[in-house]
Amino acid sequence: MVMGDGMVNTNFISFIVSPLHIGVVKMVTIAIKDENRKKLLLIAADLQKKSSKKVDFDDVISFLTRTYEHNLRRRDVFEFFCRPVAGADFGDLYAELIAERRKDEQRF
Q1: Per-domain residue ranges of the chain
Q2: Model-level pTM?
Q3: Contact yes or no for 15/28 (Cβ under 8 A)
């Protein structure tokens, strides 16, 4: 929402950054739009419902970053297995696929 002076209205959320020393916790503040705050709250509610434990914004952000990193790894694996096979002829492979599907259809 744009305020009268042209500034964007944002909410501030504090979350815990992983401590580098035992007993020391560094807090930072980030600015986010209200729409994103509402989305984070919905995710927090869902995580809390599934885990039956209290969830804060740090837990939500950790969940989102872990999920993002996991999906990147999955994409790398997908691309590895979908890369072109050296020396393979598409026409021959496609003809074999069609022939095998026809055999499957005749079995049923």
Answers
A1: 11-107
A2: 0.53
A3: yes
Find the range with the poorest average confidence among 6-10, 55-59, 103-107. 6-10
Max CA distance (Å), the chain: 73
Residue corresponding to tokens 């790894």 = 73
DSSP string, 28-78: EEEEE-HHHHHHHHHHHHHHHHHH-S---HHHHHHHHHHHHHHHHHHHHHH
**Per-residue pLDDT reduced to its tens digit, 70-104:** 998 898 888 888 888 888 888 999 999 999 999 99
Amino acid at 34: D
Q: What band does 1 get if pLDDT is binned at 50, 70 and 90?
A: very low
Q: Nearest 10 degrees: CA dihedral of 15, 21, 22, 24?
A: -50
Tokens coding 39: 């989305």
Q: How far is CA 79 from CA 52, 72, 73, 90, in A?
A: 37, 11, 10, 18
Q: Is 14 helix (H, G, I), strand (E, B) or coil?
A: strand
